[in-house]
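Troubleshooting log. The previous structure file for this entry was overwritten by mistake, so regenerating from the original sequence record. Sequence copied from the archived sheet and checked twice against the printout by T.R.
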Amino acid sequence: MIRDPRDGLFHLHVFSHATDRAPAEIVDGLRHLEGRHVRFASQYVGSFQVYVHLAVDSVAEAMRAGNILWPAGVRTETSSEVKVSRINGPKRASPRYSALVRIRPAVDPFHLLDQLDDAFESRVDPETYWYGAAVVTGRGYDLLVDLGRPTEDELLAAVLEDLRGVDGIRRTDTSWADLGVNAFRNEAS
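Regenerated output below.
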């Protein structure tokens, strides 16, 4: 884990798979944690059903956060950032439609992050084209890319054309969300 130099915090990305509780119920159950550790949470469609972005001061605090998430119904696979994009980190913001893409690279992940930054830098606009990325720890993947667009069709094009057009990507795992459904973001973050 590394601290993001922009805010001095450790950022963790939590992917929760199917549990005995509905994904929307889990996200709603996390709302009371806003301002503590949870920076963002939403239901997604894909290989995970709930995504949570945590920002913490220490590894010990990250461990305690896991104890807070469990009673809310989050059964997790957690990744921590190792190197953050020079543009944005994942899930710091996004237009309404969101894709979280976990990538297994065919090349060095640090080199691929630089290539992705080069490919997306001119496209980024906080209102219409969100891109954030990081080299992360993870089971089966080394990069997490966060793409956001104002429409579903634009988001699909961003994933299938813009992202997959970058050389060095071996395999992807993409999950999708309409953030207008039940996402929440800690505005103080």
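The beta strands are 10-16, 38-43, 50-56, 76-84, 97-105, 130-136, 143-149, 169-178, 184-185. Archived copy saved in two places this time.
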